[in-house]
């Protein structure tokens, strides 16, 4: 096929440029809509706090919580708590991605392994991660080990199932062609399975990221870790610092947004060659 047959026409180039311009024009509108949604939420919160059935002492208005949040973020103790929560999140994610990714490939590429593990997976998957907290306390002595068990368990299934879906989507003809060309198992994984599986894996990592953060904070609340955002929320609540408690909850939500943006940024960099990311960038 000649180069002229594959090169984009002038009409196509112009239409893509017009689409990009229209998107750039639409972005401020989306930003404004996002800001409007936040403002509406804060107004409703303020009204419910001041005129609702709950005592304002236990549901402080945002005009009290937001200034408390900004006072907290200049404290070293706040960032130390954020760092401890992120440490549990990161280690749990690392173990989940390694375990779920490797096991997903091994199980997905073997019909025997799929049949052998199906009933075990179906038994273990519905068990809520928080139900493992008493078990984690019995098995491990340090809070970080206890948190890691729960966080890794919860994030592991997101990664494992997305990896299995990705491996199942691999073209059977391409795998057969790889075998006929004498590709080793590792070469088939590297050159045939990975390009198809990677978008699924990244989706699993992004979903697991949110789950891991929720579980990390839940463990800090339930296990009674001395450090972390969950521990700070509990400490503020026990001492009657309700505005500070809500401000820390606000911080956990913002932390989740930051982690989600980080995961999407990594996904776009790793999958810059993939059609889904290229279409998103062109749109």
Give a written overview of the molecule.
This protein is mostly helical and 283 residues long. The chain has twelve helices and no strands. The radius of gyration is 24 Å and the shape is globular. The model is unreliable at 1-6 (pLDDT under 50).
Task: Annotate the secondary structure layout.
Layout: H1 3-6, H2 10-51, H3 62-72, H4 76-108, H5 111-124, H6 133-139, H7 143-168, H8 172-180, H9 185-222, H10 229-238, H11 242-270, H12 275-282
Q: Portion of residues in helices?
A: over 70%
**Which whole number gives the mean pLDDT?**
86
Tell me the Rg in angstroms.
24 Å
Task: Describe the main β-sheet briefly.
Answer: none
User: What is the element string, with H for helices and E for strands?
Assistant: HHHHHHHHHHHH
DSSP strand tally = 0
What's the total helix number?
Answer: 12
Throw out a few tags for this protein.
globular; 12 helices; disordered N terminus
Brief rundown of the structure:
The chain is mainly alpha-helical.
């Amino acid at each position: 096929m000649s180069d002229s047959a594959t090169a984009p026409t002038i009409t196509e180039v112009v239409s893509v440029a017009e689409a990009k311009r229209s998107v750039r024009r639409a972005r401020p509108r989306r930003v404004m809509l996002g800001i409007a949604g936040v403002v509406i939420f804060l107004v409703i919160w303020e009204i419910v706090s001041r005129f609702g059935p709950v005592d304002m002492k236990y549901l402080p208005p945002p005009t009290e919580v937001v200034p408390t949040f900004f006072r907290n973020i200049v404290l070293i103790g706040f960032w130390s708590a954020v760092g401890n929560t992120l440490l549990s999140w990161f280690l749990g994610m690392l173990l989940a991605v390694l375990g779920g990714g490797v096991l997903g490939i091994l199980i997905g590429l073997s019909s025997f392994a799929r049949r052998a593990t199906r009933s075990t997976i179906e038994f273990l998957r519905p068990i809520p991660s928080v139900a493992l907290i008493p078990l984690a306390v019995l098995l491990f002595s340090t809070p970080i080990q206890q948190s890691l068990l729960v966080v890794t368990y919860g994030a592991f299934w997101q990664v494992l199932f997305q990896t299995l879906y990705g491996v199942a989507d691999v073209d059977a003809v391409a795998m057969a062609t790889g075998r006929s060309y004498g590709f080793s198992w590792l070469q088939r994984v590297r050159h045939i399975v990975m390009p198809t599986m990677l978008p699924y894996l990244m989706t699993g990592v992004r979903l697991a990221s949110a789950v891991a953060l929720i579980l990390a904070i839940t463990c800090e609340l339930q296990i009674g870790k001395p450090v972390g955002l969950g521990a700070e929320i509990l400490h503020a609540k026990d001492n009657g610092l309700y505005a500070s408690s809500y401000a820390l909850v606000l911080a956990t939500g913002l932390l989740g947004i930051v982690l989600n943006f980080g995961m999407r940024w990594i996904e776009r960099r790793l999958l810059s060659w993939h059609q889904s990311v290229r279409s998103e960038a062109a749109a």
